[in-house]
Write a structure and sequence with these properties.
Elements (H helix, E strand, L loop, with lengths): L11 H17 L12 E6 L5 H12 L3 E6 L11 H8 L5 E5 L3 H11 L3 E3 L7 H15 L6 E5 L5 H13 L2 E5 L8 H7 L4 E4 L2 H5 L4 E4 L11 H4 L9 H4 L7 E4 L11 H6 L1 H25 L1
Parallel strand pairs: 1-2, 1-3, 3-4, 5-6, 5-8, 6-7, 8-9
The structure holds phosphoric acid mono(formamide)ester and norvaline.
Length: about 300
Amino acid sequence: MKNLLSIEELSAAEIAALVTDAIRLKAERGNHSAQPLAGQTWAMIFTKSSTRTRVSFEVGVRELGGFPMFLSGNDIQLGRGEPIKDTARVLGRMVHGVIIRTFAQQDIIDFAEFSKLPVINALTDDEHPCQILADLLTVQEKLGGWEGKKFAFIGDGFSNMTRSWMWAAKILNFELHVASPKSCQPPAEFIASLDSDMITVSDDPISAVKGADVINTDVWLSMGQEDQKEKEAEFAGYQLESELLSGAAEGHIVLHCLPAYRGKEISEEILEKHADTIFQQAENRLHAQKAVLVALAQAK
Ligand code: CP
Ligand code: NVA
């Protein structure tokens, strides 16, 4: 593994190995003998807001012996229009790896090409692979694995989170039911490109949740869409609340990548009822990303 640009570039074996290593790193936390990033500086270029991703990467790089260098997109020349390929070629001569949160997926692809450094996608408009790895770790811990489990995703059917989940379902071969207003569903070409009969997309949250072991949601308006109030109006009936979840499997878990907007995609009651899982999921960002950093350091 040279980069982590998207979930679909990983094999089932690579995903399973990252989750297994994350479990090891979580158990060993505070007693690491190996420092695979010793002497390395990892730049963190963020052009969107972040709490979990920023903190977990800064802590994770340090715990593995490296130095994280946070670069806000507004503060570096990139924010004034310096091309990605020039920024990438400069950083490629100075740092050892780059973690990027930005809008266009193509920007991180270009960054990896021109910097020749290991690049980690810390969220783009298309994908959020680090979140999916942390979520799978949480499913492993809470339910003993994803094999044979039914997953539901209720909300925006074509956000970075749903796209990454659909790829994960295809690769790992678990059932995923996405329920989303018609206007927020993935285009037919995208569904065709998945070529998987394990994934269904509908506008029926009740059917999607029925018998589900894992019910997942995310904000209705992703970063960069905040002024699309007309989109938000489409989501009536798509809130995770007690009546909708009454059809879920016994022992089901609820996931939310956070930040959460109570009263919109999830009710206060359901968020607090499942807070133990949801905040374990947030903590797992740290362990999953450390596994990614170790894998990239080993590949060098
Ligand atoms: N879930 C997630 O990526 O959170 P942040 O936006 O706070 O990093
Ligand atoms: N879909 C959300 C995820 C936030 C972690 C967004 O892009 O804002």
